[in-house]
């Protein structure tokens, strides 16, 4: 049986090869991204998930009800856009509804229920009885049916009534312009301006009224001028004077310190843990006895140094004698060597002559 012939390879064009490579790279990129995001990867052309048996990580799971809340929020955003393009009709109807509710609440203060139950009336946050008592002009029916109809000019007048206003200028205490520590320009009476602070009197250039009393007689009597006020740069200051008792105690302490010895000698009896050497010597605490001990030690030292010098002198004499004896022995040895050499030479000449 003749052998089967192998089918020849199908020719592959370069464009097909590039398309296959691009498709393979795309699938690899999608697979890598899906693994990083924790999603299940699916092979192309297959409905079986390669990671269906694996659970998603905790951080990749969504909270319960998140999708439903997002859907409700999306519907709310579509009905009420936040880009500033609100429906004017809807705003107007909402305001009218709020005004009707407010009218019902205001009717409660006039003895009417306004369609509200007792629980709703008790839960109101505004005490309209107290409000009508404080502002009776705002609760009258002649101002309108809603609080928005109140004339702003009347409100401004009421506000201006509550604001404190400067009183009238008195002849003996005129109003002046004064700048306080916060930089505010105020009209205050001259008596309220701090001492030394600059101010401007707008009535200073006006002619004096002869019917008014003079300023000297009209000013209130502040009493005598204070005597503890210092003007100008201060170059003199009080000097501290201590108590004589303190000075006496300080002088006594200085005298006691001067009478005490200038040098505090070492006392070995106060220390028990210190190791003392073989040449340790404990001096007396009495100055006289200590001086005698020091003199005795000095004499001992002098005697020791004298004997040391004598020994050195004696040692030098002995050393010189020994050196002289050594030199003498060396000289004798040399002479003896020369004699022996001379006899050897004579003996050698006699043998040669014979």
UniProtKB/TrEMBL annotation:
Residues 176-195 form the CCDC174 alpha/beta GRSR domain. Residues 1-92, 131-237, 274-354 are annotated as: Disordered. Residues 139-150 have a biased composition (Acidic residues). Keywords: Coiled coil. GO terms for cellular component: nucleus. It holds the Pfam family CCDC174_GRSR. Residues 83-92, 288-343 have a biased composition (Basic and acidic residues). Residues 13-22, 40-53, 206-222 have a biased composition (Low complexity). This is SPOSA6832_02906-mRNA-1:cds. The gene is SPOSA6832_02906.
């Amino acid at each position: 049986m003749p052998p089967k012939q192998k089918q020849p390879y199908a020719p592959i064009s370069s464009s097909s090869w590039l398309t296959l490579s691009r498709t393979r790279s795309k699938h690899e990129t999608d697979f890598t991204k899906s693994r990083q995001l924790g999603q299940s990867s699916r092979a192309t052309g297959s409905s079986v998930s390669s990671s269906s048996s694996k659970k998603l990580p905790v951080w990749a799971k969504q909270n319960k009800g998140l999708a439903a809340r997002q859907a409700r929020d999306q519907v709310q955003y579509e009905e009420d856009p936040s880009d500033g393009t609100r429906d004017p009709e809807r705003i107007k109807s909402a305001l009218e509804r709020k005004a009707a509710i407010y009218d019902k609440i205001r009717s409660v203060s006039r003895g009417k229920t306004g369609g509200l139950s007792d629980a709703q009336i008790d839960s109101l946050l505004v005490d309209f009885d107290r409000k009508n008592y404080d502002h009776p002009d705002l609760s009258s029916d002649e101002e309108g049916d809603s609080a928005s109809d109140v004339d702003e000019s009347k409100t401004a007048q009421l506000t201006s009534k509550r604001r404190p206003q400067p009183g009238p200028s008195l002849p003996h205490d005129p109003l002046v312009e004064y700048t306080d520590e916060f930089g505010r320009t105020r009209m205050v009476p001259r008596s309220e301006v701090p001492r030394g602070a600059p101010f401007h009197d707008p009535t200073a250039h006006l002619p004096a009224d002869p019917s008014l009393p003079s300023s000297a007689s009209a000013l209130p009597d502040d009493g005598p001028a204070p005597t503890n006020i210092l003007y100008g740069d201060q170059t003199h200051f009080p000097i501290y004077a201590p108590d004589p008792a303190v000075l006496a105690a300080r002088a006594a302490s200085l005298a006691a310190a001067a009478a005490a010895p200038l040098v505090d000698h070492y006392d070995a009896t106060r220390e028990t843990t210190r190791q003392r050497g073989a040449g340790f010597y404990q001096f007396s605490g009495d100055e006289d006895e200590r001086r005698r001990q020091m003199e005795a030690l000095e004499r001992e030292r002098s005697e020791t140094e004298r004997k040391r010098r004598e020994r050195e002198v004696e040692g030098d004499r002995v050393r010189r004698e020994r050196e002289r004896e050594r030199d003498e022995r060396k000289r004798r040895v040399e002479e003896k060597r020369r004699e022996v050499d001379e006899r050897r030479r004579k003996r050698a000449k006699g043998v040669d002559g014979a």
